[in-house]
Amino acid sequence: MNVVEMPERQRIKVTVLRRFNPSEVFKKSPVTPVGTLGVCELYKDGQEFIVEKDGKMPEGFCTSAWISIYPNVRALSFGADLPWYKEKGTAVSCCTDGLRPVVFKLERI
């Protein structure tokens, strides 16, 4: 039986590209928020996080956003490239908050 070795995982830099205000996503919200919603307060535009080789969610990262972007983080960390980007080792992913999404750039480092 042939044994296939797993490639060594690489670190991934996650950069907050942009946080959207609900008014940028919808002219009229499809639901009624309990309170006033603005951009996601957990992040700042330009903020960076490093995913170490162990692949664990960085401290201070939103669990919902992590679940959304993790498939691309994992693929990049194992050396995959996404075929719809010319830049190797790069992806753009978004959290699943439909009213105020946060867009992240992922880069293999």
Structural notes for this entry:
The chain is built from two helices and four strands. It is of the alpha+beta class. The protein has one domain (12-25, 40-108). Strands 2-1-4-3 form a four-stranded antiparallel β-sheet, covered by helices on one side. The longest helix is centred in the middle third of the chain and has 15 residues, at 63-77. The N and C termini lie far apart (34 Å). The mean pLDDT is 94.
What is the string of SSEs from the N terminus onward? Answer: EHEHEE
Q: Tally the structural domains.
A: 1
- What is the CA–CA distance across the termini? 34 Å
Alpha-beta classification: alpha+beta
- Total helices: the number is 2
Overall 3D form: elongated
Helical percent range?
10-25%
CA-atom Rg in angstroms = 16 Å
Mean pLDDT: 94
Largest sheet: 4 strands, antiparallel
Low-confidence stretches: none
**What is the strand arrangement across the widest sheet?**
2-1-4-3
Strand content: 15-25%
Concise overview:
The chain has 109 residues and is an alpha+beta fold. The protein has one domain (12-25, 40-108).
